[in-house]
Amino acid sequence: MVEKFRQILEEIKKQKGDVYLFAILKMDEFTDKWSVILSAPWINNNNVRENFVFLREIMIRNFSNEEMASIATLGVFTKDEHIIEELLKYKEGTMINEQVKINGNIIHEAYILASNSNLQ
Known about the structure:
The protein is α+β, with helices and mostly antiparallel strands. It is built from four helices and seven strands.
């Protein structure tokens, strides 16, 4: 699944440009489902919904129904959201496989597929 998320990240970058953060997280140890988090310079308070739909459509095209069922939530955020600030502390390529508390949520597993706070 992680490799498919990497492919989705590449498609996002081809269509829209660089991203600050693209991460997948499991925040519930009992339900084996992913939360997908995206933040990018081209996301602002006026187009969050539009970019949520963009992300959802890319995922629907690339994942089977069974794979889509393994995704609990999609989050599209501006860079100034607290969860983005917390996740940007992790370098691109980081895998979290221990319980870590981020933004009041306990993360059980995570992959930081893109992390770049220095974009303009």
